[in-house]
Amino acid sequence: MPHIFFGITLVTNFQLAAFAAVLRSSLTSIVGVFPQEYTVPLLSGQGMAGIFAALSKIITLLMLQEKCETVFEDIPMDGKMEQKDDEQPDMILVVLKQIWPMALNICCIDVVKVSLFPAICADVRTSLAPANSLWDKLFGPVGCFLMNRCGNFVGRMLTAFILFPRKNSSFLPLLVAAQTLFIPLIIFCNVSHRSHTSPFFQHDAWFIFFNTLLGFCNGYFTTLLTSYGPKMVPLKNAKTAGSLMVFSLSIGCIFGAALSFLIRWII
């Protein structure tokens, strides 16, 4: 019976994720027609959804006092733009040559995020409260999921006011590469089930700070790069560029999930 329930759960989650991907892709296709600032509310709404999910987890724990495990997956989708009927888009490789820096950057952003959150972050335990205490039960929903989603939401919203660095700036890849620093920072937090390393940042505040900053950087740069990608090509190629950005996100999720197993082994 547990195997049947698990199988049904997997199939249901797959269907929900597939339909959600179609819906997000369709919405961002419409938003891509409008100026760049219209991308921010759509992606910020995705960040807000994560906050609602985290709050529901906290409310459930406070009301029912039952243990449950929750995993949130956030796969933001980029936009597509309409084209005139008499204009035919160029070949995919032609468009990829124009947007490959943005595609590579957004892929790397998702690799770092998925490799740490929620696979590793969800295993961090509080060092300030005993097992089965109220804070011990709430530390995961609050310190891991809620703070990460709040940081993600603030980062997405910030792009409505600040667009830094610009899409042609050589500083952008450096900021993206700097996010790999989150990997050792999270590894040396108070992650449970260690075999090869010892925690260095044991206090809860360290993990909450790193985790919130991880969500903030992911939300900010994902929204920034998502809005930059289709703007780097002519209007007739914007739809192809949006599809390639979505594909880059998917590739980032795959590599990030694989990297999380390596990080878990290192810990």
Automatic annotation (TrEMBL):
**Transmembrane regions listed in the UniProt entry:** 44-64, 171-193, 205-229, 241-266
Coiled-coil positions are: none
> The organism's lineage?
Eukaryota, Metazoa, Chordata, Craniata, Vertebrata
Query: What are this entry's molecular-function GO terms?
Result: nucleoside transmembrane transporter activity
The Gene Ontology CC terms held by the record are:
plasma membrane
Q: Where is the signal peptide?
A: none
What's the short name of a Pfam family annotated to this entry? Nucleoside_tran
UniProt-recorded name of the protein: Equilibrative nucleoside transporter 1
Origin: domain of life: Eukaryota
* Key words of the record: Membrane, Transmembrane, Transmembrane helix, Transport
Q: Which family does it belong to?
A: Belongs to the SLC29A/ENT transporter (TC 2.A.57) family.
Major localization listed first in the record, in broad terms = membrane
User: What are the subcellular locations of this protein?
Assistant: Membrane
Q: How does it sit in the membrane?
A: Multi-pass membrane protein
